[in-house]
Amino acid sequence: MNLSLSTEKRSETVTRILEAAMYVFSEVGFGSTRVDEIARRAGVNKATIYYHIGNKETLYAEVIHGIIGNIADMIAVGIQEAQSPEEKLRTYIRNIARSIDQNPQIPPIMMREIASGGQNFPEVVAKDVARIIGIVTDILDEGVEKGVFIETNPFILHMMVIGAVMFYQASVPIRARLNWIPGRVKQLNTKTTREVAEEIEHLILRAIKR
């Protein structure tokens, strides 16, 4: 394949590589992923991947950073239009839920990473997460200052939100397959991401409001 691609063609190629990589990483994890398989699914050769992105570690970082970094950007923009700490918190939760709904491959990737003790967790993604927690911290601090929130640990709150949304997404095929699951749990399969986000918002706000 000719590596001297136009800017437009290069963008299409990189997008195709990252999408293929996301699927492979979510299916088998970082350790079992082979660049040959990513190249095959993307319809390119390995040299193209190394030329445009880099090795497997760089590719892994780009895949996760592309999602988590984008979540941070969307939250930062969204809260600028919110008028109250409560609405800013809702904006944060809705953007988390929407992004995971649009990228269902990210829960298995992140859950494998957590299970491994963050063995391959990219530094750039750690900075993305720190940025999100920083935004949540500012929202909570504003809420406390205005007398609408109680003192709350932002990291624990973030883990509650991200954990609830990720487990909701990751458990969809399990809930659909097992007949013995209670009806109220099975009904979750019919709920949209927005409805689930609204339930999480309600529970979180009920817990932290004065």
Say what the CATH topology of the largest domain is.
Answer: Tetracycline Repressor, domain 2
Q: pLDDT under 50 segments (min length 5)? A: 1-9
Please tell me the CATH architecture of the largest domain by its name: Orthogonal Bundle
Q: For this structure, what is the CATH homologous superfamily of the largest domain?
A: Tetracycline Repressor, domain 2
The separation of the N and C termini measures 62 Å
Number of helical elements: 11
Please indicate the count of domains: 2
Provide the β-strand percentage band.
Answer: under 5%
Helix residue percentage = over 70%
Task: Note the run of SSEs as H and E.
Answer: HHHHHHHHHHH
Radius of gyration: 19 Å
> Major beta sheet, specifics?
none
Shape: globular
| CATH secondary-structure class of the largest domain | Mainly Alpha
Report on the structure:
The structure is a single chain. The protein is mainly α and 210 residues long. It has two domains: 54 residues, Homeodomain-like (Arc Repressor Mutant, subunit A); 148 residues, Tetracycline Repressor, domain 2 (Orthogonal Bundle), CATH 1.10.357.10. It has eleven helices and no strands. Helix 5 runs antiparallel to helix 11 and helix 8 packs antiparallel against helix 11. The longest helix is centred in the first third of the chain and has 26 residues. The termini are far apart. The relative contact order is 0.11. The N terminus is likely disordered.
